[in-house]
C-alpha cells in the first residue's frame, strides 16, 4: 500500500476583461480609450476591498492614454486595448503593428512631449513589451490599491 497525496489546482478565478480597437485614422482614440477604461473600472465593483478609488481610475486613464497615444502615433493601422482585472491590479495591454519597442528617453525638462514611457514607468509596477508575429504587445501593470505607507516611527 502506498500513501499518496494529491493536489488539485483550483480553477482560476474568472476576472473581468474588456477590449476595444482604435484606429489612428479616426480622431478621438485617446479620449475614447480613457472613457472606456473609467467605465470598465467603475463597473468592477466586486473587487476585494471595494470599488477602485478615483485616484487609481485616473492613473489607469493616464497610462491608457500614454500607451494608446504611442500606438496611434507610431504604428500603422489600428491598435487594440485590452484591460484585464486582477485581484489587486489592472493589466493594461496595447497591441499594435509596429515591431519597434518604445524606448524611454533620459530626463530633459526642456523636451516637449515624448515623456509617455517615463510616465508609465513612474506610476506602474511593471512595463513589459512582447514581440508578436504582427507587431508587439505593450503591457503595464497598475496597482489598484495604493501601497501602504509605513507609519512606524524609527528610534535611534
- N-C termini distance: 61 Å
Number of strands: 5
- Roughly what fraction of the amino acids lie in strands? 25-35%
**What's the main sheet like?**
5 strands, antiparallel
Structural class: alpha+beta
| Strand order, sheet with most strands | 1-2-3-5-4
| Secondary-structure element string | EHHEEHEE
Q: What is the strand and helix layout of this fold?
A:
Layout: E1 17-23, H1 29-43, H2 54-74, E2 78-85, E3 89-96, H3 116-123, E4 126-132, E5 135-143
Antiparallel strand pairs: 1-2, 2-3, 3-5, 4-5
Helix pairs in contact: 1-2, 2-3
Task: Describe the fold and architecture.
- With 156 residues, the chain is of the alpha+beta class.
- It has three helices and five strands, in the order E-H-H-E-E-H-E-E.
- It has helices spanning 29-43, 54-74, 116-123; strands spanning 17-23, 78-85, 89-96, 126-132, 135-143.
- It has a five-stranded antiparallel beta sheet with strand order 1-2-3-5-4.
- A hairpin with a 3-residue loop joins strand 2 (78-85) and strand 3 (89-96).
- The longest helix is centred in the middle third of the chain and has 21 residues, at 54-74.
- The chain is globular.
- Residues 1-11 have low confidence and may be disordered.
Summarize the structure.
The chain is α+β, with helices and mostly antiparallel strands and 156 residues long. 28% of the residues lie in helices and 25% in strands.
Amino acid at each position: 500500500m502506498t500513501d499518496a497525496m494529491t493536489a488539485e489546482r483550483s480553477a482560476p478565478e474568472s476576472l473581468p476583461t474588456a477590449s476595444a480597437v482604435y484606429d489612428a485614422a479616426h480622431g478621438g482614440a485617446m479620449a475614447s480609450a480613457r472613457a472606456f477604461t473609467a467605465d470598465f473600472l467603475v463597473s468592477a465593483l466586486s473587487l476585494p476591498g471595494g470599488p477602485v478609488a478615483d485616484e487609481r481610475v485616473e492613473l489607469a486613464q493616464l497610462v491608457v492614454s500614454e500607451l494608446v497615444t504611442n500606438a496611434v502615433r507610431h504604428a500603422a493601422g489600428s491598435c487594440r486595448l485590452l484591460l484585464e482585472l486582477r485581484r489587486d491590479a489592472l493589466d493594461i495591454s496595447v497591441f499594435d503593428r509596429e515591431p519597434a519597442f518604445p524606448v524611454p528617453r533620459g530626463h530633459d525638462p526642456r523636451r516637449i512631449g515624448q515623456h509617455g514611457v517615463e510616465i508609465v514607468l513612474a506610476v506602474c509596477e511593471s512595463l513589459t513589451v512582447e514581440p508578436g508575429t504582427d507587431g508587439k504587445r505593450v503591457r503595464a501593470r497598475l496597482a489598484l490599491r495604493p501601497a501602504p505607507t509605513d507609519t512606524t516611527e524609527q528610534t535611534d
